[in-house]
Amino acid sequence: MPLDPHTGVFYALHGQGRPLMITLPLMASHTAIFGADAQAMLDGYLQPLVDRYRVLLVDYPSIGESRDIAPQALTAHRVCADLLGVAGAAGFDRFAYWGYSWGGAMGLQLASRSERLSALVVGGWPPLQGPYREILAAARLKLPNPEPSSLKVLRSPAQYAQWITCYESLLGWNKAEAVARIRCPRMVYFGAAGDLVEAGVPVTIASNIRRQRATLEAQGWTVHEITGQDHGGAALPALAVPPVLAFLDRVLA
After folding, report:
1. How far apart (Å, rounded) are the C-alpha atoms in residues 24 and 128?
2. Which of 20, 43, 173, 185 is a plausible cystine mate for 53, CB 3.0–4.6 Å?
3. Are 28 and 1 within 8 A, CB to CB?
4. Could you read off the pLDDT of 56-70 as tens digits, one per residue?
5. Is the torsion defined by CA of 118, 123, 128, 130 positive or negative?
6. What is 11-252's CATH number, 3.30.70.1730, 3.90.1280.10, 3.30.300.30, 3.40.50.1820?
């Protein structure tokens, strides 16, 4: 698993076929970060894909074996430049992108800024009416004492400030205009009970996607709601991979 010298991103490639980048919730150093028990999740994503997709996983941002990024440097512009850079280092010109939660939000940035995406899959984040201000407010409240789940991934508590930088960089982003310009095949999926409360702040993910479903479908989005699942449950491979794989096979065939 190599380190891209230009972006400092550590990455891993699996399988053969059409190029597909998957960001969070997967990582290049997935089991090294989460332990041997996480192998089942990794296998659950990769095994159905690797016979026909060349899957690129990354340690990003500043996790695993990747180099540090100063928290104040992690703007959406930096994220897109890094992800496009490591894709090039892995030999990907045009590629499909799949990310969940923050990874999904960054997929919207990529697709609205670059013509290199052949398809876009956004999990657990609203393409329209994304609760950026709410998640930013929650991150500011959590900064003095990040939750243990965050610290399992991050190098230090101080690194948690990178999420504040990233979401602050999106405050002026015209979501409706940018999303309407995305032309590659695109899908969003989410857990039906996927609204969150972070540090006491309501972060309405599922409700916002459901509210905008007709508009998204009119714009060409495939919208898939996973019943009976919350935000975390919708990222489980047994629930996420089959509908996403069906979508990718259809639009990339």
Report:
1. 20
2. 20
3. yes
4. 999 999 999 999 999
5. negative
6. 3.40.50.1820
